[in-house]
Amino acid sequence: MSSRATHGALAAVVERLRVQLGERVTTSPAIRDQHAGGEGVHLPAAPDAVAFPKTTEEIATIIKACVAHKVAIVPFGAGSSLEGHVSALHGGVAISLARMDAILDVNSADLDCRVQAGVTREALNAHLRDRGLFFPLDPGANATLGGMAATRASGTNAVRYGTMREVTLGLTVVTGTGAVIRTGGRARKSSAGYDLTRLYVGSEGTLGVISELQLRLFGIPEQIAAAVAPFNDVERAVGAVSSIMQMGIPVARIEFLDALQMQACIAYSRLEGFASTPTLFLEFHGSPASVAEQIEQVRAVLEDFGATGFRAATQQEERTALWKARHNAYHAAKSLAPGKHALTTDACVPISALPACVAETRAQADASGLVCPIVGHVGDGNYHVMILYDAADAVEVAKAERLAHDIGRRAIAHGGTCTGEHGIGAHKLDLLVEEHGAGVEVMRQIKRALDPHGLFNPGKTIPTG
Known about the structure:
By secondary structure, the chain is of the alpha+beta class. The chain has helices at about 5-20, 30-35, 55-70, 120-130, 145-150, 160, 165, 195-200, 235-245, 260-270, 290-305, 315-325, 330-335, 355-370, 395-415, 430-435, 440-450; strands spanning about 25, 50, 75, 95, 105, 110-115, 135, 170-175, 180-185, 210-215, 220, 225-230, 255, 280-285, 310-315, 340-350, 375, 380-390. It has a seven-stranded antiparallel β-sheet, sandwiched between helices. A five-stranded antiparallel β-sheet has the order 5-6-10-8-9. A four-stranded mixed β-sheet has the order 1-2-4-3, with helices on one face. Helix 9 (about 235-245) crosses helix 11 (about 290-305) and helix 14 runs antiparallel to helix 15.
């Protein structure tokens, strides 16, 4: 495994890179601190230098220099990851993809596009809007598409459109030798060899650096409608979701906010006419007739499960206000305990296990005495808990860590996973072993084969053994 490089090795790398990149490689303390960590887990660790490539070839130059001098490499997108993925635990060079923000090609007839890894999802959708197309994955943050692929992100629309695994057709990756490879292609399916695209999707920067992506696109739906349904208890709200999914109703989004999270959103986003009770936010896509049918089918299910009110919204202004409140849930939740750190964790279980898991998690969170709102992309069994704690209080830190790990263990015990979309990073290495057992050794073998010196994002994703 990589250890921190010597001062001489770092100086040699920086000098070599400045010949190629000029001022686009820096050791400025302010810039380094900006690349010291992401959101979520409080694990700041600044790199020794930051490089800003503009092309795949420049990424290859950076990697070759780092490998030659055994200096760690940390890919950096928007810094919105939640499990310590971008903290430079062993120093080294952070490769910022911020300036690789070109949309290279859009194929409207084939519903695909090619982009550089630093393009954000919002920038891509702004570019596509006039073509009647959109990229559906929405993790909340305006993440880079390269970072979303690296962490196998998904978000609110995954219940209908899938995750980055499903919408990524191919990648350009710079490997541990500085070689540039193209995986996948534009075809919708292939049986040619190992599926290298899926190997790199979710690899969290530990096997190479993603520089370009070929992505699936979708037509903007003719009709979009939203709905909100409050409930008196968690079990009924989540149980209703299971019934909707079993019926095969093609809902685009089903989001759950517990009472505490609703309290935060009502205050932070100034939502009027809502109560601090467990609530489902839903969205429907399709033709006007199909959307109307979906709404009535879902209304019937929700009322059978005791929804205390149901209201649909087809006007863009009202829909925008609702989903803006949902997307601001992270900041709203943090406002519940100003000054405290937020440890945001997620888990994913079979939908039938979701009511019990959420209820048990709510009970444990309440017993801990910590402020812990819960939200979830419950249409695919994925839920998130924000644990707010005082980083200067050892007792609260221990409670937060125990609760986060128990959430992962509970999900595994119910046949699920310790993370549905946040990834392993530096924070869930032990849970990965609990979940995959002997399979982790196969992962280690892949890591050693593609990164023999342990230079790519060391300390993350795959535990050393």
